[in-house]
Write a structure and sequence with these properties.
Layout (H helix, E strand, L loop, with lengths): L7 H6 E3 L5 E4 L12 H8 L1 E3 L2 H11 L2
Antiparallel strand pairs: 1-2, 2-3
């Protein structure tokens, strides 16, 4: 049986942590940043953990 290819879009967006959870960068940090407060920009900078419901599908795309 052939190997499955990793989904190229997913490998750019998700990174697995040591415990097996998936980290992702949040949205809303690409443009129009001058309208957002400094507090909002700092909060958006941090990575977040992918929701449990989406994790199974994302792991399948990544081949984890």
């Amino acid at each position: 049986m052939p190997k499955n290819k990793t989904h190229s879009g997913s490998k750019k967006r998700f990174k697995a942590t040591g415990s097996g959870k998936l980290k992702m960068s949040g949205a809303n940090m690409r443009h129009n940043l001058e309208h957002k407060s400094a507090k909002k920009r700092r909060a958006l900078k941090t990575d977040s953990i992918l929701a449990k419901g989406d994790e199974k599908r994302a792991k399948k795309l990544l081949g984890i």
